[in-house]
Amino acid sequence: MYKTACILILTYMNLCVRVTLCGLQTFRDCFYLSELKNKESSFGFYPVSRAEDRKMINAYSRKYRAATRLQAKFRNLKAQKRAFQLKQGFCRKKVAVCVQSIWRGNKVSTKQDVQ
């Protein structure tokens, strides 16, 4: 994206198309290690201080977000497994109750038939 934005801006400048501040604001996210300044004589992207530190911070935050995503997926899998186990237990109990009721009903009906 960064290369595409640079090529696009340079193409506009070579075609003598006037680049405006609003036009540059659309490319602000491509130049994340610079800030858009509007001075009286000129405007444009200027490098921010401590760019190397910011690169390291951004790299760390990407790793941190990746670790957070992995934790969330693992916790989700654990929760799904637990829910499946609970559902199986509930179904087993329900089946047992149905079998018991059928058996008891069958016993009652056979006693009535005998009498």
The share of residues in helices is over 70%
Number of helices: 3
Strand order of the largest sheet: 1-2
Shape: rod-shaped
Low-confidence stretches: none
Rg, please?
34 Å
Number of strands: 2
- The helix-and-strand class reads mainly alpha
Report the average pLDDT across residues: 79
Task: Give the number of domains.
Answer: 2
Largest sheet: 2 strands, antiparallel
* End-to-end distance: 89 Å
Q: Provide the succession of SSEs.
A: HHEEH
> What share of the residues does DSSP label as strand, in percent?
5-15%
Please give a structural write-up.
The protein folds into two domains: 47 residues, no CATH class; 44 residues. It contains three helices and two strands, in the order ααββα. With 115 residues, the protein is mostly helical.
Summarize the structure.
This protein has three helices and two strands. It has helices at 2-14, 21-25, 51-114; strands at 34-38, 43-47.
